[in-house]
Amino acid sequence: MEAYGRKMPEVMVDGVRIAYRRRGTGAPLVLFHGAFEDSRVWTEELERLSPHVDVIAWDAPGCGESADVPSGWVDADWAGAASGFITALGLRKPAVAGFSLGSTIALLLARDHPTSVGRLVLVGAYAGWGGSLSADALAERIAAVRYTIEHPADEWADAFLDSVFAADADAERRAHARSLLDDWRPTTTTALLPVMAQDLRPALPTIRTETLIVRGTEDARSPRSASLELCRLLPRARLVEIAGAGHDCTGPELDAVLVGAARAAVESAAR
Length: 271
Prior knowledge:
The chain has 271 residues and is an alpha/beta fold. It has a single domain (2-270), classed as Alpha/Beta hydrolase fold, catalytic domain (Rossmann fold, 3-Layer(aba) Sandwich). The chain is 40% helix and 18% strand. The protein has helices at residues 43-49, 75-88, 101-112, 135-150, 157-164, 171-181, 186-197, 224-233, 252-270; strands spanning 2-3, 6-7, 10-13, 16-23, 28-32, 54-58, 95-99, 119-123, 211-216, 237-242. An eight-stranded mixed β-sheet has the order 3-4-6-5-7-8-9-10, sandwiched between helices. It has a two-stranded antiparallel ribbon with strand order 1-2. Strand 3 (10-13) and strand 4 (16-23) form a beta hairpin. Helix 2 crosses helix 3 and helix 4 (135-150) runs antiparallel to helix 7 (186-197). The protein is globular.
């Protein structure tokens, strides 16, 4: 796979090869993608944001061009990989933005390695599914995700994408997301499921990083109650809602939040 006509750059973190895309200069902004996708989901964001900030989008372990998830990984390993990735790139307390699954990895990073991150932006966020969904919704989510492990994407893609995108979402963006499903590794789902299913709420009061919780008002996957609970438990968090957007709430409003967070992180690190 190539990034803008070139082989994707890579770093090694504790023996795991992690590929990434990078564009722009200035304040660093690290992007963690969601499940069933990789850094290609940020293609438009890399184009739009690169005139303003230094945008770095990883392929999480087990995704895109990165190596498979090592056997036996737990949440501390995911946090360590995220921190090691930031360190390998020589970044100092950058802004980190995580979408959906990426929001949980970002929280694990801030919990276990607080000096690695200067600002958090959590988009379509969860305190783990166990900390954000009702018992019934959690059981349904786990069952639905397990279904994807054993069945081809054609059998579940439409229902999944319906829950990610608002009804009037850009058709090309949705089609791009659909194409990424065909490259997803079911083994990665198996590795991530216990991480996503946990309840991170007990750890949230210990996370002192300034945080923005971003949610589309039409989000059908992460309930508004989840965002409100994150804001209540994270000591330095506030909610930003994007009217009419779904779980995928990319666009000018989110761009402004991301650029602002990246610049604020640099200013804080310089003090």
